[in-house]
Amino acid sequence: MCKSLLRQWVATGLLFAATASVAAGPPAAGESPWRLGIALGYGERSNPLALADDIRIGIDIDVAWFGERWFFDNGDLGFTLVDSDRYTFNLVGRVNSDRVFFSKTDTDFISVFDASGGVATLQVSVPDRDYAAELGAELLVDGDWGYLQASAHHDVSGTHDGLELYLNTGRTFRQQRWAFEPSFGLSWKSRKLNDYYWGVRQEEANVLFPPYRAGAGVNAHARFVASYVLDRHWTFLVIAEYERLNAEAAASPIVDQRGVIGAFAGFRYGF
Amino acid sequence: MGRATLALLAAGMLFAAARVAAGDDTVTLSVKPVLCITDQHSASCDLSFLVLWEARRAGRYCLYSDFSATPLDCWMQAVAGRFAEDRVVDASFRYWLTAGAGEERVAEATIEVMSMATSDRRRNRRNRHVWSIL
Predict the structure, then answer these.
(1) Partner of A262 for a Cys bridge, out of A186, A196, A220, A241, CB 3.0 to 4.6 A?
(2) Which residues of chain A make contact with B16, given a CB cutoff of 8 A?
(3) What are the tens digits of pLDDT across the range A89-121?
């Protein structure tokens, strides 16, 4: 069902590409196809997993290149099918972001009484998960009201075989050097995707993490960015974001916290 | 990177952006503000500029800008001066100071216009790549 939905998205995109009256244009005059930047500061993203550390952020690198149709945006590889005055429609290959939490897991040792009355020490850790390569389609719309991004991505690496539908909208309010950008959205994750990352297989189960099957669910997220332009290259910025995991993920025994909080403050240098 | 280092870095950048010294260190010209930021909603800035200058030696000094071939103001036997004006800006321009009867510039300050507008909406897409919060 998920794969057929993806095929419908891609087919719709190809149809748009074939019939669009306005094709993707070259970059605006004087605008470099590159966007290169580095941010230095301090930030953290909380880790919802049990037996896991929060993710510290000290340096953040921004590498993007936007050609007439192809583009690379910090790990996302895209191809623009339609770029009109009203919307842009892209095909995008990417790496799933859920895996990032599993890079910071720890191993714990717990003592249990065995059948003979003795004490045994067990090694307990959160099961490992792999990155998934995903392919999908993305619609970008903007106007005086703000912007909207909608996308659908399906696993093509055979990692979870699931689907994610993503919707995000926001608006930038600028007052000379200051800019404020609130945004929020939803992300639907299919049963296969959710179960791969947040489920616990029978063979992975232990005394702390019993077997668990996760169904589909909807994450909600909100984000706020405040920035102050110091000069042509330097910008001071503060970012705060919150993501509420879907109920199926939150009920997993490997999950300790339902909310994921992220914050960063620092300076960005744009080349 | 410590907080003190970051604060010093920020203070240094603000100072450099707001104050432009002449190659000859006897005259200093400072302008506020020195940056205009435009975007798709506003293609220009309506700004009130304050131009201040100081010289070690008294003399005749004239202030010019790219908008006018004639001086905005001149001062006789002065060691300091100020000039204020309101202006709508949509492109970078300069204020400069000349000394004596000549036209040689003894101090100059550039007001930069920085556009945040882009015709490529892909540049504003939000991707949630695995290593970043930005």
Answers:
(1) A241
(2) 231
(3) 999 999 988 888 898 887 777 777 777 777 777
Beta carbons of A239 and B35 less than 8 Å apart: no
pLDDT at A140 over 80: yes
> CB-CB: which of A66, A97, A234 is closest to B13?
A234
Residue A115: half-sphere exposure toward Cβ, Cα within 13 Å: 0
CA distance A35 to A238: 20
Q: Please report the pLDDT score of residue B26 as a whole number.
A: 80
Q: For residue A144, give the chain B residue with the closest CA.
A: B41
Per residue in A174-201, pLDDT tens?
Answer: 988 999 999 999 999 999 999 999 999 9
Please give, rounded to a whole number of angstroms, the shortest distance from the CA of B42 to a CA of chain A: 9
> Under DSSP, is residue A2 helix (H, G, I), strand (E, B) or coil?
helix
**Candidate CATH numbers 2.60.290, 2.40.128, 2.60.120, 3.30.70; the one for domain A2-270:** 2.40.128
What ipTM score was computed for the predicted complex, to two decimals? 0.80
Please indicate whether, in this complex, the C-beta atoms of A230 and B14 are within 8 angstroms of each other: yes
What was the pLDDT predicted at A71? 97
Distances (CA, A) of A135 to A4, A178, A201, B100: 13, 36, 26, 69
Contact A140 B10 (CB under 8 A): no
Q: Do B35 and A177 touch (CB under 8 A)?
A: yes
Retrieve residue B130's tokens.
């695995």
Nearest Cβ partner for B120 among A28, A43, A100: A28
The reply to whether B121 touches chain A by the CB within 8 Å rule is yes
SS3 A60: strand
**Which ranges in B19-89 belong to alpha helices (H)?**
none
- Lowest average pLDDT, out of A27-41, A172-186, B109-123, goes to A27-41
List the domain boundaries for chain A: 2-270
Query: With b meaning 16 or more CB within 10 Å and e meaning fewer, what string describes B29-40?
Result: bbbbbbbbbbee
Please judge whether B10 and A229 are an interchain contact, meaning their C-beta atoms are less than 8 angstroms apart. no
For residue A227, the model assigns a pLDDT of 96
- What SS3 class is residue B24? coil
Domains and CATH numbers, chain B: 26-115 (2.60.40.10)
